[in-house]
């Protein structure tokens, strides 16, 4: 279990990987994942921050990480042992095709699941099947099989959510048109938040009014479109402050702020502290 390299990073020409890790890498790095992952804690415990929200992964708990998640670790027991199945953003997009956006939102908000004995055995068996296919490199349908198994896992989780009291999740909770617009909005934000921070830009790209876009985003997430954009920018600034030696001025330039002072005011408004104080605190 190598702590020097990101265990969830996708190597060239691979769409998925499987293995064991103690997640020590994320104690020293706040990393934006280029992949998604399913984690299964077999021993010990670890506190993971997903997009700055803390979750404690303990024995007999599973966790789902979406591609693009910023992940870091703050507390980890010495005996921490986690199995992982990591998958590329491309593979996830193929597997998640036609699964309603409400479920993806719920999965992002509630990524942790406590498993009973039967549930743990089922997930453990799923990992074993994935591992068998992963090692069968001569199988010409290897990627398709893995995609189908990931899709099956997502559909089973979606079915559980539909049947779980209190989840308030139904396939009809928003129109397919609204789902499509919201999904496209999030895709555009992921591509352009570094240089475009105004809602009007994204509304124009979607060929709808700013008010209509804001209404859709609020109905799906409970937040404003502007809040989502700003949150992505803040997460990126925090990641650059923690993982690079770039000066605040260089970060401002990279993220298309007019100058260092403007970035500082933006960061303080959303976090209550200066970029330099945040960087010093995280060392």
Describe this structure in words.
- There is one protein chain.
- This protein has 12 helices and 9 strands.
- It is of the alpha+beta class.
- The protein has 2 domains: about 15-165, Jelly Rolls; about 175-280, Homeodomain-like (Arc Repressor Mutant, subunit A, Orthogonal Bundle), CATH 1.10.10.60.
- Strand 4 and strand 5 (about 55-60) form a beta hairpin.
- Helix 4 packs antiparallel against helix 5.
- The radius of gyration is 20 Å and the shape is globular.
- About 30% of the residues are buried.
- The model is unreliable at about 170-175 (pLDDT under 50).
Low-confidence stretches: 170-174
CATH architecture of the largest domain: Sandwich
Tell me the CATH superfamily of the largest domain: Regulatory protein AraC
Assigned CATH class of the largest domain: Mainly Beta
Cα radius of gyration in angstroms: 20 Å
Overall number of strands: 9
* Overall SS class: alpha+beta
């Amino acid at each position: 279990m190598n702590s020097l390299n990101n265990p969830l990073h996708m190597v060239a020409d691979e769409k998925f990987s499987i293995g064991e890790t103690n997640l020590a890498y994320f104690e020293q790095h706040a990393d934006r994942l280029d992949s998604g992952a399913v984690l299964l804690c077999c021993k010990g415990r670890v506190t993971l921050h997903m997009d700055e929200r803390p979750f404690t992964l303990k024995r007999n708990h599973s966790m789902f990480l979406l591609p693009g998640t910023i992940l870091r670790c703050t507390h980890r027991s010495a005996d921490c042992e986690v199995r992982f199945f990591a998958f590329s953003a491309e593979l996830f997009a193929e597997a998640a095709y036609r699964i309603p956006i409400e479920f993806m939102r719920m999965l992002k908000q509630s990524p942790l699941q406590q498993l009973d004995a039967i549930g743990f055995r089922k997930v453990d068996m799923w990992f074993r099947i994935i591992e068998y296919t992963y090692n069968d490199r001569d199988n010409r349908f290897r990627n398709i099989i893995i995609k189908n198994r990931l899709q099956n896992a997502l559909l089973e989780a979606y079915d559980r959510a539909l049947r779980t009291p209190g989840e308030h999740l139904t396939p009809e909770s928003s129109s397919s048109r609204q789902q499509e617009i919201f999904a496209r909005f999030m895709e555009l934000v992921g591509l352009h938040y570094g240089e475009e921070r105004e809602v009007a830009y994204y509304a124009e790209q979607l060929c709808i009014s700013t008010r209509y876009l804001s209404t859709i985003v609020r109905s799906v997430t409970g937040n404003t479109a502007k809040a989502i954009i700003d949150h992505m920018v803040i997460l990126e600034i925090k990641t650059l402050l923690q993982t690079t030696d770039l000066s605040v001025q260089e970060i401002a330039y990279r993220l298309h702020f007019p100058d260092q002072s403007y970035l500082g005011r933006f960061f303080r408004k959303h976090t209550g502290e200066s970029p330099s104080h945040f960087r010093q605190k995280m060392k």
